[in-house]
Amino acid sequence: MASLTQTALPDAVKTMYERRLLTRAIPRLPHGKFGMIARLNKMGSYELRKYGSLAAMTTALTEGTTPAEQAAPSATKVTVTPSFYGAWIGYTDELDMTNFDPIVSEISGILGEQAGVSVDTIIRDTITAGATKDYSANQTARGNLDSPQHDITYADFVKQVAALEGENAMPVSGENFAVIIHPHTFATLMQDPVFVNLFEQESARGNSAIRSYRAGSLLRSDIFISSNSRKYVDLGSGGTTDVYDMLIIAREAYGYVGMAGLTPEIVDNMGPGYGNMTGAAGKRTSPVELIMKPLGYGDDPLNQRGSVAWKATLGVVLTNALWIRSCEHTTVFSDD
């Protein structure tokens, strides 16, 4: 039986639904915004290269004499292998006929949110596990943290930024590092008078702050708020205290391949490189694929079942643990 498949749908239709999925996914990807993009080599694997720094030159030049050539900076190669992730939702002919909302459109949006939070969680867990670890209030282990005496403060924030500065870490964009915190962490810091006095709130620029999660800046650090920031439920003192994670990220601390690091502009403008997000001939494919199976596809002689799915590739690797710090802490919500 000849069945209608997603390849038979017009490119414009596939692009519309895939764009809707990505638009719903991107606000769920704050942990993927600051990594390096891996490059495909000729052997079919992806790799990232990190170059070392040169020592300071403190010897004055001698008139008429060319100094010795500097040794080339050392290069470290890290290989990353992407894996596939995905999920699907089925629907019936009766639901398709009786539901007021367009099923494929609604499901693709819901799946987009799931795709975004799934990819973000994988990246988050990888980089928090490998980051340089520290704890609030000079504690030394997660199990020691208790609220309110170990609630995060401005002093903890300063310590993490200073540690990155001490490692000569580079900013992720402009002159600033990136900090990702939980809303409960932000609420706690906003009760610290020193933090409040110095914090520069993000100015209103359309919906950019909402979509990027950026709340403001402090000490050369842009602060991003995400409910998907890592939280360790009941793993603090006494087995009843929730512990939260604050990530402070510098450039070239980690890398990825696949669905991560997308910006709203890429989706809104379908470019660069994503002019046709369905992967038509001559175009780059999108890092996430929307797969639509209409009623009657496959073993469905009565046209009773259809499905919508997403599939994405992702690989994540740390390249410099000293340039990404994880500060575990308690908040005013830790004992709720």
List the helices and strands and how they pair.
Layout: H1 11-25, E1 36-37, E2 39-40, E3 46-51, E4 75-80, E5 83-92, H2 93-98, H3 103-130, E6 132-135, H4 154-166, E7 177-181, H5 183-189, H6 193-198, E8 200-201, H7 208-212, E9 214-218, E10 221-225, E11 231-232, E12 243-249, E13 254-258, H8 264-269, E14 288-293, E15 305-318, E16 324-329
Parallel strand pairs: 1-13, 6-16, 7-10
Antiparallel strand pairs: 2-3, 3-4, 5-15, 7-12, 8-9, 9-10, 11-12, 12-16, 13-15, 14-15
Work out the count of structural domains: 2
What is the chain-wise order of helices and strands? Answer: HEEEEEHHEHEHHEHEEEEEHEEE
Strand content: 25-35%
* Mean pLDDT level: 79
Q: What structural class do helix, strand and pairing data support?
A: alpha+beta
For the biggest sheet, the summary is: 8 strands, mixed
Q: Overall 3D geometry?
A: globular
Termini separation (Å)? 58 Å
* Number of helical stretches of at least 4 residues: 8
Rg on CA atoms, Å: 24 Å
Contiguous uncertain segments of 5+ residues: 1-9, 204-210, 270-285
* Helix proportion range: 25-40%
Count every beta strand, where a strand is a DSSP E run of 2 or more residues. 16
Structure description:
With 336 residues, the protein is an alpha+beta fold. The protein folds into two domains: 6-49 and 77-124 and 257-318, no CATH class; 134-254 and 320-329, 2-Layer Sandwich (capsid protein of prophage fold). The protein has eight helices and 16 strands. Residues 1-9, 204-210 and 270-285 have low confidence and may be disordered.
